[in-house]
Amino acid sequence: MATTAAPDTHADQPALPQDFGTGRLFLADSRLAFAFANHLRYLALKRAFGVSREQANLLTFVLLAAGAEGAYLGARTVVRAPLRVTGADAALGGAMLRESVFGMAGPASRSTPMFGTLLALGLVGGLAAPAIRRAMSRARATEHRLRQARISQYAASRRPGQPSSSS
């Protein structure tokens, strides 16, 4: 009696290549993100200036050229500006940073004792955690390697007919 195979429901779909990995997925996702951003650019230009899709590229070039001189002058001014930070500037910056952190954390953060210290410890711990994990992983690997060396030495000393290294 001949058996027939079940029909392949995925026969009409192209098979993914076996080497479709992270790199190709990133490229596919980045192309999709670029296409979406380009579409949003078309919509914004149509809404703001009433231009068609064919004219959008030219208008984008004109807008970028017009903004380039202002960006150049602003960057040149910032780079050449003398850096004079006074104590009052530092205090004002610290107060603004503190208030922005309280604003993001919510009203309960103001009543929490030593909230800034707690937040700083959390940030330092978050930054240090990968280094600590790496160090612990190396320590475990070293301990495992030493344990395996000791076990092989003990096993070799138990074998009959072989002189032990201690005698």
Overall, the morphology is flat
**Helix vs. strand class:** mainly alpha
SSE string, helices as H and strands as E? HHHHH
Rounded to the nearest angstrom, the distance between the terminal CA atoms is 74 Å
What's the mean pLDDT score? Answer: 83
Largest sheet: none
Helix percent reads over 70%
The stretches of 5 or more residues where confidence is low (pLDDT under 50) are: none
Secondary structure tally, helices: 5
Number of strands: 0
| Rg estimate, integer Å | 33 Å
Total number of distinct structural domains:
3
The share of residues in extended strands comes to under 5%
Offer a concise description of the structure.
This protein has 167 residues and is mostly helical. The chain has helices at 22-49, 53-80, 87-105, 108-111, 115-158.
From the structure above, extract its key features:
about 170 residues, about 75% helix, mainly alpha, 5 helices, 3 domains, single chain
Task: Characterise this structure.
The chain has helices at 22-49, 53-80, 87-105, 108-111, 115-158. 74% of the residues lie in helices and 0% in strands. The radius of gyration is 33 Å and the shape is flat. The N and C termini lie far apart (74 Å). It has three domains: 37-81, no CATH class; 85-112, no CATH class; 113-158. 0% of the residues are buried.
